[in-house]
Amino acid sequence: MPLELGVWRIDSGVTEVPISYMDQERRLEDILATDISIASPNWMVIGRQVRTSFGGCIDILAIDRVGNLVVLELKRDMTPREIVAQILDYASWVQEQEADALSRIFDSYQEKYLHNGFESLDAAFCSHFRTQHMPETLNENHELVVVASALDDSTERIVTYLSETHGVPINAVFFRLFKDDDREYLTRAWYRDPTGTEVLAEETTSKGTWNGEFYVNISSSYDWEKAQKYNYVVAGGGQWYSRTLSLLKDGGRFWLYLPGIGYAGVGIVVDSTPVTAKEFLVRQDDGTEVPLADLPDVDPGVMEDIDEPGKENFLVRVKWLKTLPQDKAIRERGFFAQQNSVCLPKAEKWDHTVKRLKKRFDIQD
Question: Fewest Cβ atoms closer than 10 Å to its Cβ: which of 89, 175, 261, 343?
């Protein structure tokens, strides 16, 4: 059944804060366009009222930090069937948009809504997500999000049916406005775990089957030489980055990518359980283990935020088969690359990439 949300003030007794419906749906659209992190910190708005060639306008078009698109459509006064049919129609248009089209959409968005000149999509993306490089491929997958002030039974049934039966990466999020005297509070609740929808988007829109080879990405904020020396891969700075480390399996082979530089290593997962930098132990030549934090030349990037819950760096123990210095990293046109810390790619591009890397690293199966 639909989710219900309540707010109570408890500083002087227990008083329920009453629900206050927004004056108009446009206000919610304005709020989300101004700060999309209210819905998800992993999104950046690139378009608003985006007109499609099929007719109609997408309320908000966003991009996530791996270059996938997110279509957000406000329910307004539409029936459940109308809103779902519309967002699916928009999805059929969105999946065809390539990088040049996305740049034009972002230019129009800046001109009409931001009035701040014409920053390139690439530069805006890097600034927003605090990364040095935009993903090499964009719009490989997409997500669909119905935005509403409440989730009715019919919409819930349709979203569940499409996602669970047909694997459509669709979700619903609803917002409630609460007023306490002259203060206003906005609450958010997702119908389905949004992390699960992100994974579903990649699994259902990618073609082919996974070849058993893991893709691993180490951010440029970490010291690649130290990762080689102390036999680990690392991700951190938030759950979005670190959660995919759990995809790794003991004994699995992985290929290590340095963002914007190239592939610099291939290794085997020794212990797939992610542990914090404070907990990670480095095995010495004599078999003893020493806490990474006690080593004199530990990577300061790995030790950042170790006492701040949610931002810790997590490490997985590996055995390197072959590595290359950063300036010798392998990069070829057509190689697979994205910003997930770990993924199990199903794209044909990944099969091609692994085949080429085996030759370049002289790895014999």
Answer: 89
